[in-house]
Amino acid sequence: MTKIINHNHLRELESEAIFVMREIAAQFEKPVLLFSGGKDSIVLVHLAVKAFYPARIPFPLLHIDTGHNFQETLDYRDELVEKIGAKLYIGSVQASIDKGRATEEMGVGASRNKLQTVTLLDTLEELKADAAIGGGRRDEEKARAKERFFSHRDAFGQWDPKNQRPELWNLFNGKKNMGEHFRVFPISNWTEMDVWQYILMENIPMPSLYYTHKRRVFMRDGIWLAEAPFMELKEGEEIVELDVRCRTIGDISCTGLNLSTADNLEDIVKEVAASRVTERGGRSDDKRSEAAMEDRKKEGYF
Amino acid sequence: MDSKAYLDMSLLRFTTAGSVDDGKSTLIGRLLYDSKSIFEDQLLAIEETSKRKGQVDVDLSLLTDGLRAEREQGITIDVAYRYFATPLRKFIIADTPGHIQYTRNMVTGASTANLAIILVDARNGVLEQTLRHTFIASLLNIPHVVFCINKMDLVGYKKETYDSIKKELEQLVVKLNLRDARFIPISAKYGDNVVDASEHMDWYSGTTLLHLLETIEINHDLNMTDGRFPVQYVIRPQQKDYHDYRGYAGRIASGIFKPGDKVKVLPSELTTEIKAIDFYQEEIDEALPSQSVTIRLANEIDISRGGMIVHQGNEPTISNNFTLDICWFNEKPLDLSKKYLLRHTTNELKCIIKEVNYRTNIVTYEKDFADKNIKMNEIANITLVTAKPIFYDSYRKNRTTGSVILIDEGTNETVAAGMIN
Questions:
Q1: Do domains B5-221 and B317-420 have the same CATH topology?
Q2: Is some CB atom of chain A closer than 8 A to the CB atom of B139?
Q3: For residue B289, what is the DSSP state?
Q4: What is the pLDDT of chain B when averaged over all its residues?
Q5: Which of A168, A251, B290, B306 pairs as cysteine with B111 (C-beta 3.0–4.6 A)?
Q6: How many angstroms separate the CA atoms of A100 and A119, rounded?
Q7: Residues B159-192: pLDDT tens digits?
Q8: Is there a single domain that holds both residue A29 and residue A44?
Q9: Residue A15's CB: how many other CB atoms inside 10 A?
Q10: Does some domain include residue A199?
């Protein structure tokens, strides 16, 4: 039997992403892959492994650790790094707070999500990274719809939406001055559905958080959040134990949980197909204002 | 949904061109809405905004509203990418603003498109902007162009109106040598012939827009003839098990590659055979255009990024002196005294613009041989000289090996897109 690649839409997206991965390795001196433990960055790592096989991926992973991560995320991360033989750097938000580079939000609804930007930019500078590979997708949020594959950042790590380079065909321009860097998004053209279908097609092992499990949770502003020592409860908020799973994983303070019984990838794909709310609908960090993402991106967020 | 159905879906990239008033945002909103690609939280957000603005119907165009800067000015300033899917296909829309000062954005959106939708307001017929949009579709060699005669509701869904606009467009299609053109009368606002067939236009027996997008044959658009493999990256594992492994990673630009194929390597012009084609852990028997693979050769030949593997007997042009059509992207006009960087496939090299041959008017299509000052959003034909020869095909034949960008060495900005003649 002739062995060929069944070139469906997922293979086309994969091919594009692998092309971008190889461009990054060719055009930049010190790229890093931003790994959050979420499904998008897990797919990124998978694509990087495929792009350079049988060689190891030619760049390290960087995890910005808020200190408020699910233990499952950290365990999964360490196992993955071990398996693919990659180097892992960790940027700690706690360390940024201790050094006085960032100030902790206080009170109910406090989150370290925004503080990550400081840690991220500091760590990229320490590592002298000239490209940070991220799992951002254009379908996630409207401020992302105009993002480039190769997104230029000035010497302060900032994104200027009005001063982005046009991208034509598959000719990517990664030229920059000293001190500037790029954010590169190989899965720009993927949707949430594509990501899950691809995970299913490739049978990529996922952290247990994505499958249904019993967890102690409470409801805030219509979103189920996980119980954790640093999550202060408001009056009237009550802890209950439910069957839930994550649709997107950030740190505990802003990751909404879905009521679900999906315990395998096929059921997750079906659930995503039937869903009538966007995945970021469960991210309390996006609810802060209509232009919340646009503002965070300008400052240098992921 | 059958959980394995997605394995048979294909991908269509299309671009939409239209100006502020011809209903482009409404059409895209309609496609997303009627194909159920809009989520409740998004819909809720635009319902609230519509109400706040005092509109009675939900304004679907709000769905494609982008950055705050644009919302405040009520305009689109950049290419935005949108996504939707049906059980047959996944779609990527490059949504581009149609105003003349955004010609460069239209060119950008068109560069990766298999298909262009050009909106024509049924009340106004073929306008200057229609001529411009069609010219760009032709210049960028988009394989399929679909003219949507929109706002049919405002002309009483009359066949005569549609027919006369169609006739005019057909002349344009011939003049610009478009490969494949289609015509559909629609009302984006009310959904006629967008996703569902119109109840108001019995005289139209053709397909709806979505059905056309779902079924139009796109496999024939690929160039399966000319074997071109630009080497992107050389894989040499520093690991014991793969001591002798040397693989050339890249994306097939055109043609079909198989193990055993007799190939020539550029620029060295040495000949050899393909030993194997790797796709991750598998050796495959055939690689097709746009697939990212790794090729191993029978002989040890030194190739680095920027080199190209081609089939013997079917070779690209090798030259450091060639003409091309460009669209100028930058606020600083083209400067003949300057050196630019040229990016072509995986190659990057210095070049100078030897001559501006003429400037093309994108509405009258006339060539201007007198005024050769090329400013932002203008189209020109130029002659380039590169520091070393490049291996290229004409853009008409090959969109990958025939396209280039120019980069300003001082600012690092992409200043032009070029299509080699």
A1: no
A2: no
A3: T
A4: 90
A5: A168
A6: 11
A7: 999 999 999 999 999 999 999 999 999 999 899 9
A8: yes
A9: 20
A10: no
Strand partners, A151: A183
Give the residue among B139, B138, B141, B160 at the shortest CA–CA distance from B149: B160
Residue A231 tokens read as 């999550």
Cα dihedral value A172, A173, A176, A181, nearest 10: -20
pLDDT, one tens digit per residue, over B25-83 is 888 888 888 777 666 666 667 677 767 777 666 666 666 655 555 555 555 567 888 89
A162:B89 CB<8 A: no
Q: Is A55 in the same domain as A71? A: yes
Say if the Cβ atoms of B238 and A55 lie within 8 Å.
Answer: yes
In-domain check, residue A243? yes
* Closest-approach residue (CA) in chain B for A18: B292
C-beta of residue B195 within 8 angstroms of C-beta of residue B208: yes
Measured CA to CA, the distance from residue B111 to residue B131 in angstroms comes to 18
Q: Nearest Cα to A63, choosing from A42, A47, A48?
A: A42
DSSP state of A283: B
Pick the CATH number of B317-420 from 2.40.30.10, 3.40.50.300, 2.60.40.3230, 3.40.228.10: 2.40.30.10
- Residue A278 belongs to a domain: yes
Number of domains forming the structure of chain A: 2
Q: Write the residue in A7, A25, A167 that is nearest to B291 by C-beta.
A: A7
Nearest to A26 among B66, B89, B305 (CB): B305
Whether residue A279 is found in the same domain as residue A295:
no
Q: Tens of pLDDT along A4-29?
A: 878 899 999 999 999 999 999 999 99
Answer whether A277's CB lies under 8 Å from B42's CB: no
Domain identity same for A265 and A160: no
Given an 8 Å threshold on Cβ–Cβ distance, is A15 in contact with B329? no
Residues A34 and A114 in one domain: yes
CATH code assigned to B5-221: 3.40.50.300
3-state SS assignment for residue A131: strand
A4 within domain boundaries: no
Across the interface, of B89, B281, B399, the residue whose CB is closest to A169 is B399
Cβ atoms A226, A245 nearer than 8 A: no
B207-210 long-range contacts, CB within 8 A, separation 24+? B208/B184, B209/B31, B209/B117, B209/B146, B209/B148, B209/B184, B210/B31, B210/B34, B210/B35, B210/B86
Range of the domain at A253: 207-284
Asked whether residue B204 carries a pLDDT value surpassing 60, the answer given is yes
Alpha-carbon distance of A12 to B397, in angstroms, equals 21
Q: What is the 3-class SS of B167-189, one letter each residue?
A: HHHHHHHHHCCCCCEEEEECECC
**Among A residues 3-22, those touching chain B with beta carbons less than 8 Å apart:** 3-16, 18-19, 22
**Structure letter (DSSP) for residue A115:** T
Residue written as tokens 């041989």?
B369
A222 and chain B in contact, CB less than 8 A: no
- A161 and A81 fall within a common domain: yes
- DSSP-derived 3-state class of residue A162: coil
Enumerate the domain spans of chain B. 5-221, 228-311, 317-420
A252 Cβ partners below 8 Å, 6+ apart?
A68, A69, A70, A225, A226, A228, A230, A231
DSSP label of B97? E
| Class of domain B228-311 (CATH, top level) | mainly beta
Query: Do residues A25 and B233 touch, judged by C-beta distance below 8 A?
Result: yes
Is A215 found in the same domain as A126? no
Residue type, B241: D
Q: Which chain B residues in 241-270 lie under 8 Å from chain A, judged by CB atoms?
A: 241-242, 245, 249-251
B24 to each of B29, B31, B129, B151, B281, how far by Cα in Å?
A: 8, 11, 13, 11, 45
Q: Would an 8 Å CB–CB cutoff place B339 in contact with chain A?
A: no
What CATH number has the domain bearing residue A31?
3.40.50.620
